[in-house]
Structures are given as structure tokens and as C-alpha cells.
């Protein structure tokens, strides 16, 4: 695929990586990805972000098909992660006079990535730079998803370049959102994995761009968004907004139950935790998608985990929930564990150990019941829940 005109004098000069299946090793990319870069052919030609180093040759050829690389005056680095900055050194070798525009943090990161001299200018939040016949405005957006990140807004064409923001790992060479296949689940998947840990920061930056007249969002991965722009922005806003009653403490209870006994415990624990100032949400871990639980966990003041013990371990669905917590802001969040067992009952302790490792605050000892809970056991479960609620 060659270059693609996004608007007059603005070209996509990115590359396709259709065969990628795991991004950064851990994030599934079931339809591959694209590394999007954009060339603005203004009076002062400007490049917005670059691509992965692996595709540097193809990238330079695309640029050469549109411009003499030496004529590029500015290179905007919205974010320095190597899938965007990997090819930057190759552009600078051909044009050492191009000036890099970035945040201060990005400039520092680049220094340690490029190991070469470069002409840089750091831009402040809200600062504008004239390209002659067009103007760029920079909006700092730290932790979208690195601390270095900013958005660039091209005022005349009303295009927002948010780098990883509003991006999708989705490779379809038709590129525009109204031409490609349905990428809705992948857009959400990307948000949850990449942006999910920084929900508060997402809301902060959305507040900054809400006054902009955006007609097109040109992210650095996947489809270019030009249909109902605010649908995408509002989706980010919705997914980032805490799901809780602001006047109550939220407790989320996850359980996995082989024969319904841990489920009975979970229901009794949830009932006991439902005191005047708490809201309790109970989830069967086997029936929910872990990645959609991030916002619930992050919104919660306390999290309880219940699991039966099988072969000396907790059940897989509970581990799947716990496994996504490394990418959620959970440090210091209160938690405790419970569950039924037949003869050994390691599940509660193993869950507790992992939660401690994730820096959660275990506020009370595990509560275990052998085989099926009696009425007396269920009363104790309710007290366990009540004590937990009181600790918040
Ligand atoms: Fe697409 Fe954070 O890099």
C-alpha cells in the first residue's frame, strides 16, 4: 500500500503490519495493526510521528514519494514509544536539520533512545506553532499512556493527532472508519489494555479537547476516524468515568464456584457487606470478561475474591480477573479472600499472596468453609462481609 491522502496536502505515510498478533508481547492484536504517520505539506512541511524501526525502509520510501526528506522542517513526536519513534533516527540521518517538537519528558526519553544529537524544541501545553499557512496547537496529555504524551491539533483542517489515543490495533488498508470492517470490539479492547490503567488522566485530557472543533481524528494505530468523532471521544469518557454512587463506598465481590458452595458464601458475604453506606456488586468471575472489569475494580473501594480450591489452587476465572489487575490503579485498595474447600483449601491463601504482591491491602484473614456452608457458616460469611465494609 502506498500513501493515502487524508485531506488536501495531508497524507498518511504509515505502514501496515497485518500479521502481528501480540503487541508489546502481551496485548492481543487479532487483526494486526498499522503504524500511522502523517505528512503535512504546509509552507513548513511537518511530519507527525514515525513508525516502528522494522518498517523504516518502507516508511522512507513513502516519504520520498511525496517530498524531499531534507525539506521536512518539523517532526512532531507526540509520544516516544518505539513503535512510533523507531524510524525517527533514520529520518534524522537524512535530515539532521529537522526540528523535533515534543514535550519535555519526550525530549528526555528521546535523548536516551536516539543517542544522537538532534534539534529539539519542547512545547508547552496549549502552545501553538505556525507552519506558515497552517498552525499546530499542542495539548499535553500525560499518561495517554506514557508520561511523555501530547496531542497535536491542526487548526485549519480541524484534525486531532492523538498518537495512541483513540487508536485501534486493526489492520485494514481502507483506513477510514467508514470504509473498514467493524472494529468496535478492537477499539474497546485497545482502550482497556492501553488506556485503562489511566482513567483519570483520560478524563483530564478529554476536558482539554472538548472545546476543539474536531472533524477528524488521526491516531497512530488503526482506522482514521471521521464519522461522528464525538462517538469515539464520548466512549472513552464513558469507559473512564467511575461506575459508582459518589455518596457510597463501593465493594466488588468476584467469585468462582465449582458446585455452588462458594457462590452461597459470596452471596452471604455480599449481603453482609451491604450496609447503609456501601454499594455491593457481585460478579461470577466465570461469566464476565476480565478486561471489562478494570473500571469496576478501579472504581471500587474494596474488592473481595472467593474461590473453591481445585488441585491446591484457585479456579482459573478468578486468576483471570486478578491477572488484569496489574494494569489497574489498585495500589492500597482494600481486599480479602474467601472460599470453600474439600481437604486442603489453598485457594484463599494463594489469592491473598498474589493480591499482596500487587500491593493491595489485605484487611482481614481469609475465610474458609469446608465443603458446603451451614447456616452458621453463612452467618459468619455475612459478618465477614460486614467487617470488610466497616473497614472501608
Ligand atoms: Fe503505539 Fe504507546 O505506542
What does this molecule look like?
- The chain has a 7-stranded mixed β-sheet. Strands 17, 18, 19, 22, 23 and 24 form a 6-stranded parallel β-sheet that branches. It has a 5-stranded mixed β-sheet with strand order 12-13-14-15-16, with helices on one face.
- It is elongated and about 80 Å long.
- The longest helix is centred in the C-terminal third of the chain and has 17 residues, at about 375-390.
- The protein is built from 12 helices and 24 strands.
- It has 2 domains: about 5-240, Metallo-beta-lactamase, Chain A, CATH 3.60.15; about 250-385, Flavodoxin domain (Rossmann fold, 3-Layer(aba) Sandwich), CATH 3.40.50.
- Helices cover about 30% and strands about 25% of the residues.
- It is α/β, with parallel strands linked by helices and about 400 residues long.
- The protein has helices spanning about 55-65, 80-85, 90-95, 105-115, 185-195, 200-210, 230-240, 260-275, 295-300, 315-325, 345-355, 375-390, and strands spanning about 5, 10, 15, 20-25, 25-30, 35, 40, 45-50, 75, 100, 120, 130, 135-140, 150-155, 160, 215, 250-255, 280-285, 300-305, 310, 315, 335-340, 360, 365-370.
- Helix 6 runs antiparallel to helix 7 (about 230-240) and helix 8 packs across helix 12 (about 375-390).
- The structure holds MU-OXO-diiron.
- MU-OXO-diiron binds near residues 145, 146 and 164.
- MU-OXO-diiron binds near residues 79, 84, 146, 220 and 221.
Amino acid at each position: 500500500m502506498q500513501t493515502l491522502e487524508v485531506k488536501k496536502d495531508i497524507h498518511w505515510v504509515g505502514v501496515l503490519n497485518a500479521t502481528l498478533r501480540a503487541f508489546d508481547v502481551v496485548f492481543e492484536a487479532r487483526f494486526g495493526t498499522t503504524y500511522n504517520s502523517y505528512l503535512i505539506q504546509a509552507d513548513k512541511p511537518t511530519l507527525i510521528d514515525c513508525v516502528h524501526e522494522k518498517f523504516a525502509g518502507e516508511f522512507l520510501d513513502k516519504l520520498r514519494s511525496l517530498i524531499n526528506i531534507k525539506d521536512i522542517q518539523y517532526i512532531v513526536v507526540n509520544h516516544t514509544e518505539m513503535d512510533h519513534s523507531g524510524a525517527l533516527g533514520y529520518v534524522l540521518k537524512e535530515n539532521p536539520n529537522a526540528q523535533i517538537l515534543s514535550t519535555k519528558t519526550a525530549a528526555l526519553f528521546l535523548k536516551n533512545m536516539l543517542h544522537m544529537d538532534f534539534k529539539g524544541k519542547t512545547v508547552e501545553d496549549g502552545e501553538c506553532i505556525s507552519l506558515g499557512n497552517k498552525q499546530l496547537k499542542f495539548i499535553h496529555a500525560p499518561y495517554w499512556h506514557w508520561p511523555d504524551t501530547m496531542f497535536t491539533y491542526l487548526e485549519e483542517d480541524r484534525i486531532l493527532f492523538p498518537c495512541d489515543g483513540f487508536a485501534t490495533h486493526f489492520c485494514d488498508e481502507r483506513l477510514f472508519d467508514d470504509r473498514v470492517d467493524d472494529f468496535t470490539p478492537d477499539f474497546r479492547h485497545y482502550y482497556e489494555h492501553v488506556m485503562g490503567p489511566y482513567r483519570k488522566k483520560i478524563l483530564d485530557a478529554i476536558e482539554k479537547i472538548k472545546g476543539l472543533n474536531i472533524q477528524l481524528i488521526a491516531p497512530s494505530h488503526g482506522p482514521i476516524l471521521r464519522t461522528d468523532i464525538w462517538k469515539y471521544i464520548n466512549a472513552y469518557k464513558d469507559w473512564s468515568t467511575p461506575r459508582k454512587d459518589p455518596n457510597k463506598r463501593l465493594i466488588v465481590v468476584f467469585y468462582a464456584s465449582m458446585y455452588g458452595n462458594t457462590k452461597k458464601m459470596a452471596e452471604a458475604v455480599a449481603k453482609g457487606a451491604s450496609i447503609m453506606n456501601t454499594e455491593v456488586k457481585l460478579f461470577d468471575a466465570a461469566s464476565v470478561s476480565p478486561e471489562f472489569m478494570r473500571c469496576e475494580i478501579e472504581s471500587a473501594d474494596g474488592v473481595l475474591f472467593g474461590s473453591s480450591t481445585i488441585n491446591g489452587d484457585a479456579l482459573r476465572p478468578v486468576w483471570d480477573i486478578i491477572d488484569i489487575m496489574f494494569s489497574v490503579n489498585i495500589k492500597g485498595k482494600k481486599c480479602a479472600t474467601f472460599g470453600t474447600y474439600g481437604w486442603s483449601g489453598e485457594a484463599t491463601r494463594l489469592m491473598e499472596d498474589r493480591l499482596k504482591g500487587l500491593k493491595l491491602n489485605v484487611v482481614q484473614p481469609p475465610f474458609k468453609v469446608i465443603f458446603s456452608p451451614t447456616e452458621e457458616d453463612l452467618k459468619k460469611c455475612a459478618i465477614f462481609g460486614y467487617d470488610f465494609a466497616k473497614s472501608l
